[in-house]
Design brief:
Keywords: Plasmid. InterPro entries: Cro/C1-type_HTH, Lambda_DNA-bd_dom_sf. It comes from Rhizobium sullae (Rhizobium hedysari). By secondary structure, this protein is mainly α. The chain has a domain of 89 residues: Orthogonal Bundle (434 Repressor (Amino-terminal Domain)). Helices cover 56% and strands 8% of the residues. The protein contains 7 helices and 2 strands. A two-stranded antiparallel ribbon has the order 1-2. A hairpin with a 5-residue loop joins strand 1 and strand 2. Helix 2 packs across helix 3. 12% of the residues are buried.
Length: 145
């Protein structure tokens, strides 16, 4: 018998739970304890393997200090086709990574808007370079993509 794949909406909602939990610096265990469930259940919610009931989602929203609608928001126009949100999911995965969260917090701590713009320009230029090779004579050549 073929295993049932998670519903795209459940995966999206679970990803939003994970995103907010990580932004707040909460562990799966601490969220689970506040809900009176196991951290394994939180893992299942965040992966979309298990659906989150309405009352539990309301409680999660209270713990994470967001409105329930937060779990259904998307920066792009609202669409019935959740699969079209892959890019948003990639950004969410980055933001919830250790490096992504640290980078985001550090960037937000920069008060000077001009410096933030220059850092963004630098980051974009670094993103367009794929390989830095040493010629053997001490000089480096950058191969761009």
């Amino acid at each position: 018998m073929k295993a049932k794949s998670p519903n795209a909406i459940d995966v999206y909602v679970g990803g939003r739970v994970r995103l907010r939990r990580k932004v707040l610096g909460l562990s799966q265990g601490s969220l689970a304890e506040a809900l009176g469930i196991t951290f394994q259940q939180i893992q299942k919610y965040e992966k979309g393997a298990n659906r989150i009931g309405a009352s539990r989602l309301q409680r999660i929203a209270e713990i994470l200090c967001v409105p329930v609608g937060f779990f259904f928001e998307n920066d792009a126009a609202v669409s019935a086709d959740i699969d079209a949100r892959r890019e948003t999911n990639e950004v969410a995965l980055f933001i919830t990574s250790k490096e992504g969260l640290a980078l985001s917090k550090a960037f937000l701590a920069i008060e000077d808007a001009n410096i933030r713009q220059k850092l963004l320009a630098l980051t974009r230029s670094l993103g367009s370079t794929s390989v830095v090779e040493n010629d053997g004579d001490g000089s480096n050549q950058v191969e761009t993509t």
